[in-house]
UniProtKB/TrEMBL annotation:
This is Uncharacterized protein. Residues 43-67 are annotated as: Disordered.
Length: 67
């Protein structure tokens, strides 16, 4: 069984568990509130979801620092 969890890397909503229930666990979580870490998890419904909490890595920063 899967359940909601907070990602320790990006502090957004992710999941823990077997992986079979990810779509239902994250169905009420808006896209902008979901974990942004990679690699993404592809569920049985064919959609991509955040990786299991604590197993992914934050994506590279898209912001450029001024030198």
């Amino acid at each position: 069984m899967c359940f909601g969890a907070t990602c320790p890397n990006c502090s957004k909503q992710s999941w823990r568990g077997c992986g079979s229930h990810v779509p239902s666990v994250l169905s009420s979580v808006p896209e902008e509130d979901r974990c942004t870490c990679e690699p993404k998890f592809q569920a049985a419904d064919g959609k991509e979801y955040p990786p299991q909490a604590g197993t992914g890595s934050p994506p590279p920063s898209s912001s450029k620092e001024d030198l």
